[in-house]
Amino acid sequence: MNRLIAFVLLLLAALPVAEAQKKDKDKIKLDLSGSWQGVVTQEEGYSTEYALELYLRQDGNKITGRSYVSVDSIYAEMEIEGVALADKILMIKDIRIIDDEIIEKLEWCIKSYQLMLRREQDVWHLEGRWQGKTSTNDCTPGQVYLRKSVPRA
Asked: pLDDT tens digit string along 59-83?
């Protein structure tokens, strides 16, 4: 009986340690650096869905990099910067257009993104909203859906 009581007490003492280890494992601590690919949607406009690639570099909570948006034969490559907050939120914005191809009477939106980081199985996702402006108007906002690319050897 004493052994049973001692065993139960040992198990109860181990529970807080196991729970703390589980919480540490569940915390999202990820270097966001790398390639993220997916789509950006727009409720109305030239297209309702554009391919989007983000190439990010993280230094502490500071984010820099480039975005590449394309649909059909048009594209824009933009310099981006932002900040990672609370290990799960990413706020980034387009700084300037580096290169683009566009058709007459269209203008690229300079966007601000508010993204949440989540993990589904072993795949990291950034998802959220964006809004933006052209030189003269607000853009119709939309959603962002990205997955982190896994480097291949």
From this structure: 999 999 999 999 999 999 999 999 9
Angle at 83 between CA 40 and CA 87, to 5 degrees: 90
Nearest to 53 by CA among 88, 90, 31, 78: 78
Parallel/antiparallel/unpaired status of strands 74-85 and 62-71: antiparallel
Give strand ranges (E) for the chain.
Answer: 34-41, 49-59, 62-71, 74-85, 89-101, 110-120, 123-133, 142-148
Read off the pLDDT of residues 102-123 as tens digits, 9 standing for 90 and up.
998 899 999 999 999 999 998 9
Count Cβ atoms below 10 Å from residue 75 Cβ, excluding itself: 16
Q: Which two tokens stand for residue 84?
A: 């990672």
Sign of the dihedral defined by the CA atoms of residues 15, 19, 22, 24, in that order: negative
